Amino acid sequence: MISHRQFTLQALALAAALTASSAYAVDFDGYFRAGPGTTNNGHARACYDLGIIGGHYRLGNECDFYGEFGLSRPATWMAFRTKPRSCSMSTAPAPTSARRARASSRCISKARVSTSRPERTSGSVSVSTAVPDVHILDKFFVNMSGVGAGGDSIALGGGTKLGVAYFSGDSSGGLGDGGTRFSTTPGNRLNVDVTDIPVNPGGKLRVTGTFTKGHYDNATDGKGTTGAGISLEHKQELNGLGGANTAWLQYAQGSAGLDANFGTKGANSSYKQWLAVESLTWQVGPFRRPGGGAVRPARQGRGHNVAKYNEMSVGGRGSFAITKNFKLVGELGYMEKKPDGSATQKLTKFTFAPTLSTGPGFFNRPELRLYVTAAKWNDAANAAAGSGGLTGFGDGKTKGTSFGAQAEIWF
Description:
With 411 residues, the chain is mainly beta. It has one domain: Maltoporin, Chain A (Beta Barrel), CATH 2.40.170.10. The protein is 5% helix and 51% strand. It has 2 helices and 24 strands. The protein is globular and about 50 Å long.
């Protein structure tokens, strides 16, 4: 369930967009995926994931139906020429044998309201900022979304821009608060985001700082716990390959998260984490177009009553267009997770997916895929996942095969 405060904010945001001046059209955008699936051992659906912070290799490995829908309407508001914007995202997890408890849940999980003066090139007020992702992992490595306000895209000269935002709310997103999706535990967060810093030909740097204060009702001293983090992101355009290479180096301690959001709100300064990620995309060839993405996340953490641990994954997805509207897509990923004093958890996953698409490019959508996914993992991965094992089926197996179809579209 969502809190009364969140519902009120989202309702006001939507009302502002819908009741704005009729002189402007309403814009609609979003994302949606859905499709049936089964396994070789009779279960309705299975997905294979170690639950590491680097995300999972998603092709043929998604056990939900998911949608994000945005609605906006520019308008003249108060004494300024502004553009109220409201976006909402809803999730509808699909029924699975391992996840029936979540099958009927439906919620609005994000809202955004922003205003800007169109006669100026900088200066806006917003409650969330850019969230760069690695598509094949379905992971946002910088995600400052939340309930708050601040300035964004403030010109500093030379193309560099500054964003400053303050967030405070009762929604923790389930990060360290007993595994619940929402929590009434309060927290404050300040983000400072400097983007588009030119550092080399075709290369730009983004620096994001995070400062947090977690539990006000901290059991130890009642003062709450503080945290700080920094994210460095370098994006290098690769025009000859029709793509780019993006690298992140991130560090966080205390109640700050690696992704510039809250982490574990009750964590003290002894809790430290770092993450390194490299993501490469490419698209070459005028007729038959091989394209793809590769990624290498590695994470380490220690402290706050948590043993030192290491996580690592490496993988990629490639596509080859046979015709304008038909391509062959494959994805291979390998993941490891090792807490100190415990066995290393291992998982390898491969998917092959003949695909119908609106174009030959790697990111052309909509797509309709038929897929087969094969995965193999070890006993340590089963043990760490609990009595149900990695898949949740409790059969003790360490390999599996899934079949299915999926439609994916963004607009």
